[in-house]
């Protein structure tokens, strides 16, 4: 697949495999039902409408299905829309796999995992090192696949580990500027802070909150995970409690989900780095397709602001 | 001790054993240090000043010490103050015990414990019953001694179980009015909701927050306790998670310490009953000594309001 | 009418009398007007569309009209929708009455009124008793018919007295747990607190705010009503003012409509009981049709939360 | 009394009659009680300390007592303080009256009352005119003496009518700029908006909130007063309700004490004029003694701001 | 054009020139695009739909275009809608000018400018006078054309100067009531406070924020303008800084765009007068077409309130 | 001066030169005035009292005076206090200079200035480079001496440039992680963001807000400075406005003093880096003297939190 959904231009005729990411049913004023589809591959998404559907269409074209689509790209209120001419579900004969259509982090997940292990390897405090390694090992399979969120930032496959690795690098840089920081504690906090998202969220495809995600949430889940790990490893001492505090306080304010504010220096910095990385990720994506001299769309996770791309800065789209 | 501190009147000459509840050191304008003491027994508290102290006085008269005091009760800005004539620490010869000077719940703690067991006994859901019984048994010794808070409401020995028993009775009454409620879940929530205060607070004497109280807090501590109990008892199923949710959400709003709001009917009611019992406790104590036709002092825990005792209602001081 | 609107299933063919509760006019993309109807009886509501209407249709099919309808029940975005095949307004020949189609409290209004009178009968304070009885007598006709609100909770015929009776029972139970309470004052507060809703709201059918409801509101209206009643009955004394205070403060906070917060113990409890009863009413209705293991729709009056029905609790739908 | 308290300079020897406005008792570190006195006359206030008092002193020197004082004016932390050399209560022989020592509005109260009557005289709407005249007549005695508040603005004898007259003039000016305004309604609103402060506050000397001031407040009290007046005068019609709404909404927001926001144009303007007049009054007094190029003390009623007196503007102290 | 858009009644057949104020493209359920047009002249606006458009239609019928339209006025959900029968862009042959279709202030802009100059002429402080005159002269052309805002109040051609003149009259009236005010400072503040809206907004037609309006805003822009003017005129002294402070603080609170609150008396009044004039303008327009006894639509700029037109007040529509 | 104020221990006899940083006058209960002094040198501060002062003492011992003091260090409520035995102002004979007693940044100011110039030297955008260099040159003298604030963080001599250099290093590190950033814009924003503090604050000794600091503030002052610089250098183009926006928005929210939120990526990061550096500075100082296992005092600038020093982390006091 040389050209992806992101490259579709108004006027193009399309013949491609895509994933149905979302489906909503509507009823037109002529009384006939239709489907609003969001079609995607790893490069991006496009909207489409399937008019006058049958009950069978409704049963077949569900979120998570890969389809073969033919049609034309039109302009609708300034956005691209695909006018469908033919649509059928992919079969075994088509040799396509759902994971090839999932938006995914821009780096290889095994490489990133290797980097995380390297940070753990360099820790000096054995208790913190063992706890972190134990928990990473326990959740490793899900951890390298999970998104970091359902929306806003890093909401794609391997988004969680991509976010963690990026934060680890930022933590290392800042720890050189503020040398009183305990890097073992800081790195462990970074690695573990969102790890229970593997329990809070349903996984990289059509990500949703799980029942325990809704009723308990990733922060208390992780506090309990650390307690369990310490018991299994027979680790005692203040490290366990302070690590739990790092997790508990990393959203910084009660109204953002942290029952305790950061009361340890490394916990405060963990929150600040988390914030920077999430914001830089949202900003880069918001400005990706914005021409110099133009404003981006409003970004919900950034206080609904619309950002300006100055005419004189180098292109955001070409960060190399 | 026939007459307690509460009964001291301006003009009385006093000869009594009292507990030093709080001490603050000051320096007078003549350059000499003095101590501001808060003296108490089970009936109440009175302020006193010890002028021109020596270094030895400062070492001896500390919070938690029982002393023998002689002096006169004076009026100071509308409040009673004890003018100390002699003061010495009690010794083994005096046959006095600290616990006899602690403010304590108005009911016998063994009776209250028996009532809690009765509520557990009547539960139908075996998983909830076993979890609750296990956790009560584990913490029973501390649970029947602990205060419910460091200040505001039920902040005395056995205050926690007194609060729990009162809430159980309210829960039972309301469950009769709203029959769709699951009483097993509701009672278990009441019994466990503040149980980790035995870890959050230092105990009934000169109550303070512990380190894990400050860094983690009783809500996440209890969520982990329930997880541990379920593992020990090999209990699985939604009951465990929903009980954890009851604990997690019982402060109702993030800014009050609950990372999740109540999302189950019994969790919502648990919060409401907790609120009513705390407020009625604060109101009864605020109005205890207020004459009909007068206003109480301001009550911090009740939005700093000052409450009126109507002239026509029966005396708050005589609720029998 | 053996089976009501609530029992209509997708696939049923319907032939029934129903009340038009709401009407909205739309214009379809073919330029022709249509009506969106909400059809109801005492058991519930269903949506329907009437396409391509004439000016006469628009004049005839108004809110509050009873109609005879034939059609089929379809599924539309997960909700039932009635596809109308024929529709005509009911006439005298049909022998149907609007009040038979109004949602109504689940208890008989005369029985509830009798219970209120019983609470008044047992009062000891003659001034409070006479004021309460006088005001109940004055507004009795409207009081037993009125809804408690236009939406959110108890928003059906006789909802106000149903809410009051439920609160009286809760007040009685709690007064036994907190014996310092003055029950005369508390019961009078419960009975009168929302009584001026008979002036604030237009009545049980298609309930709206009246002009004095919008400009003055039920709280100041009731304060004036009590003043008038006291003058008519030549009652003087603090009871009058304290009762007015109970009404004035029962929303607890200025931003919820109370210019004074509760400054009397019984006023504080009145607010808390009002809150519990409203919340339990909303919760029971939100969870009525929610299967175990599922979440309810979002409930506006409960901070827009969606509630979970645990798989292990007894069915909410079967509270007997 | 040629020179008042306001004119006392550091270094002056004083021999004068003054009013004790406030008294607080303290206990010095030598164990002896003393009194902190606030001494005042119509021109201003000064602090003084009376050391080593007897029980008799405490009984005699109470708030509201006129005393004859001799002493020296000293500087204490940048503020004037009177060092008392002799102090005795005034007696009948001294021929002094408390009202001569009260801070009072800068205009004659009979003149101001005459102006209010003139505004009523010019009204065209007979219902509004009769209601306003009736209520003014009923409360006239207290109305011309009352302060407008206990603190912040117009908190002196006749402060209420001074505030009302000033607002009437502002209302008249603005009504010429915005001719769609109904001046009858606007003027009646101005005259009545704070009239129930004669019931809410205890009067011009040592002003405090009354019991009905605390439990009901001047806004609901006035709504009821208008209802009573309309009944006495047999006036019906929307004017009564709209006038009640003007009163009810004149604090504009629930959190400032208005259960309804202004929903009528004249009610909105009433609030805005009330605000302007209160703010100009506070500003003039805050800047009265501030030299050009200096900042005032912080003003609580103006969001705790400290205001600057530009070097180039004409002197605030000399507004003629 | 005897009758304007405002006078179009349901049932009328229309043949008129109008301005396209806004355009939005939609796609109907038959897949064909259409345009939603807002058509306007100086008297008001009306909505219209143009169905089944061609690509050429879309290119021609843009905001800012004057068109000749024929059609019928219909009722759609209680609002007038124009059913278009023919539509063509106006050409040079039609002899129509865009500015004749712009909503404009109700007074002649040259007259208003003359009044502003009169206020400047009467100033006594030469520095303030020269600064004000210089800045007015610099921006005069745009100043007399500019709207005061993009929406809410005075959002029409010459709205800015209309707002300023109205505020100058109010300032003059109030300065007579509060004589300590420095009128030079106050008038200069009124004239300059919003002057940089000529840079913040794009002009009277299809008003939008400019880039410097979005990134800097009219308040900091004007502070810099005053600095520049003082440099050009070689004016030094506190007047420059205090005038800058007047501009900086005229929104009163940081959350409304003022980094400093008013700290000078005239700055406080400037804010209050700005507020009154904006609110009276919004109220007059909201109530313009509201019949006695009816409520207005909700007004966004007035806390989303809906205002009542009392039955007894003179017609808002006839303020003469 | 081998041992500074910071090293004084309870029990030491002191003979040293110190700076009087603050003075407050009090009056003791014996009626005699005294001075509360805060004595400091570059290492820290200590409180002292000078009893029974003469008028001459008050005139001589003012803030900013260097004195020679002899006395003993005592413990007062857990804090060190100096008991003065002799005190005299330093004279020319003493060869001491005020700047030797000022708390100062831990790095040499010339070195830091050199680093700032290096960052400017490496810029690629000539407009940004020239503007930044011009403004640095203009304010260089004050810039390298100024504190960054009056309290909370970097509130010592050369605190501003220390803060800027630290932020430049952080900016450089983060720009490597997020390569789409324009470093010219980011570095210029860092260098200029607080430069107008040289006008807002009075300087490194006894730092106070200037008049233009109070009425305008450093943010609008700097926006104007950039405008002036661009005019002087004849620089036009978007760079000027975007740099002004960087300054204007660097407090991020209106309620923190920024009339515009960051709308450019580099502006967002500027705010985040400013926040991190201020917080790390406050944290390091709060924890400086806190033993492992102890909590710090509350830190006003960090939401009044008290921070924990874990027992297992390396000593904060020894960050080398």
Automatic annotation (TrEMBL), chains A, B, C, D, E, F:
It comes from the Bacteria. Pfam families: HD, tRNA_anti-codon. One of its GO terms (biological process) is rRNA 3'-end processing. SUPFAM superfamilies: HD-domain/PDEase-like, Nucleic acid-binding proteins. Residues 163-279 form the HD domain. The keyword Nuclease applies. GO terms for molecular function: exonuclease activity; nucleic acid binding. Keywords: Exonuclease, Hydrolase, Nuclease. PROSITE patterns: HD (PS51831). PANTHER family: 3'-5' EXORIBONUCLEASE YHAM. This is 3'-5' exoribonuclease.
């Amino acid at each position: 697949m040389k050209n992806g959904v992101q490259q579709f231009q108004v006027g193009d005729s399309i013949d491609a495999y895509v994933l149905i990411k979302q489906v909503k049913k509507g009823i037109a004023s002529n009384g006939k039902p239709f489907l609003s589809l969001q079609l995607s591959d790893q490069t991006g998404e496009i909207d489409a409408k399937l008019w006058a559907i049958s009950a069978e269409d409704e049963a077949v074209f569900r979120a998570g299905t890969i389809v073969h689509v033919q049609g034309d790209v039109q302009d609708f209120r300034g956005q691209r829309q695909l006018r469908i001419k033919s649509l059928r579900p992919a079969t075994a004969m088509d040799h396509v796999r759902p994971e090839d259509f999932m938006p995914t982090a821009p780096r290889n997940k095994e490489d990133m995992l290797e980097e995380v292990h390297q940070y753990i390897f360099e820790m000096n405090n054995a208790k913190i090192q063992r706890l972190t390694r134990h928990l990473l090992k326990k959740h490793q399979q899900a951890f390298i696949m999970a998104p970091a969120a359902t929306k806003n930032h890093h909401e794609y496959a391997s988004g969680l580990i991509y976010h963690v690795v990026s934060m680890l690098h930022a933590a290392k840089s800042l720890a050189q500027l503020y040398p009183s920081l305990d890097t073992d504690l800081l790195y462990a906090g970074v690695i573990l802070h969102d790890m229970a998202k593997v329990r809070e969220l349903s996984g990289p495809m059509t990500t949703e909150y799980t029942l325990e995600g809704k009723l308990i949430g990733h922060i208390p889940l992780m506090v309990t995970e650390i307690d369990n790990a310490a018991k299994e490893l027979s680790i005692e001492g203040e490290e366990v409690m302070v690590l739990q505090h790092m997790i508990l306080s990393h959203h910084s304010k009660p109204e953002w989900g942290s029952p305790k504010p950061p009361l340890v220096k490394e916990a405060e910095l963990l929150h600040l780095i988390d914030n920077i990385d999430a914001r830089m990720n949202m900003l880069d994506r918001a400005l990706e397709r914005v021409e110099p001299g133009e404003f981006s769309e409003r970004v919900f996770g950034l206080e609904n602001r619309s950002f300006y791309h100055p005419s004189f800065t180098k292109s955001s789209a070409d960060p190399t």
